[in-house]
Write a structure and sequence with these properties.
99 residues; mainly beta; Jelly Rolls; 5-stranded antiparallel sheet; 4-stranded antiparallel sheet; 9 strands
Length: 99
């Protein structure tokens, strides 16, 4: 068994999100996304559902036509083909489950 710390080896960039794969299985994947303050992932549509859980910081998340602000330990689920995006209000760490 291997254990790790989600915040270990964490770096932020103002040039764009830093995506770190954690686990990939046949039907889902876990990814850590680190966004420096002010970094944006523009709204886009994806062919898979996503679950975003904020680990650290605050951000504005696009969910379809809505925008919601989330902070630590808050989450949102977005269905496949719905618009999703993120704007980091602080240095932001998000755990993403793609299915």
């Amino acid at each position: 068994m291997q254990t790790n710390n989600l915040l270990e080896k964490l770096t932020f960039s103002i040039d764009g999100p830093i995506k770190t794969p954690i686990l990939k299985q046949e039907h889902f994947a876990l990814v850590r996304i680190a966004l420096g303050k002010g970094v944006t992932i523009p709204p886009h549509r994806g062919g898979h559902a996503v679950f975003f859980m904020v680990i650290q910081g605050k951000g504005i998340f696009t969910h379809g036509e809505e925008e919601i602000e989330l902070g630590p330990h808050e989450y949102v689920h977005i269905n496949a083909n719905e618009a999703r995006g993120i704007q980091a209000l602080d240095d932001l760490v998000v755990l993403v489950v793609k299915s």
